[in-house]
Amino acid sequence: MSNIERSSTPPRCIFGASAGVPGSSEWVLDQRLRSPPTLKDTESYWRSLTPEEQDNLAEILRSRKGPNVVLRQNAALVSNLNRWTNGNDWMMIEGGEHNGQWVNPRYPSATYGSGRLKDLANNTYIYFPIGNSHTDPEGIACHYEVLHAGTTATIKPNKWHEATTLRYHRRRRQHAHRRAQKRRLRRQGLDASVVTLPTH
To answer: How wide is the angle at C-alpha 178 spanned by C-alphas 177 and 181, nearest 5°?
Structure first.
């Protein structure tokens, strides 16, 4: 025999006898109540660091990616920003009261602020228009998207997505397609139980 001592009484469970069965939903809930998962508040950790420590941590996170990956991502972002800015007829004002601001023929009476990104390959800065959903209803300017408690940021266009690209509307479209296909098959006197989804 083995030297393992076995208890004659099952472990005490909050939810009764069925909670003692490992793998049951009651057992899982009981285990979660006994030892809740520890959550790490990364944002408060980031705020507790000094600016020098934040810079060091950001540099470590950047270096983990590797220099080639960072350069490729930066080059792609610079290329996309230039294409987006030029493709939407943005013009930067140089000199005068509105120096460094952007104008667009679609918004004749508005000026937009300027964002800046360093092109790591050429060691220069590129500029782009910054707007939000209130000042840019057509979605042709850009905005900053900050991630990972402020350690990384990227620049995204304000373009609007059609409602048909959302999951809900895609499901509705597929449901309507299946219903129409079933009606068509019933009219032809065929079996309507097997209906295929539309291919995209």
So the answer is: 85
**The two structure tokens encoding residue 38:** 């520890």
All structural domains of the chain with their residue ranges = 43-157, 162-200
Query: pLDDT tens, 51-68?
Result: 888 888 877 776 666 667
Q: In the prediction, which pLDDT does 103 show? A: 94
- HSE, CB side, 13 Å, CA atoms: give it for residue 95: 0
Note the pLDDT tens digit of each residue in 126-163. 999 998 878 888 889 998 888 887 777 788 888 766 55
Give, in order, the Cα–Cα distances in Å from 102 to each of 58, 88, 90, 109, 156: 31, 12, 7, 11, 17
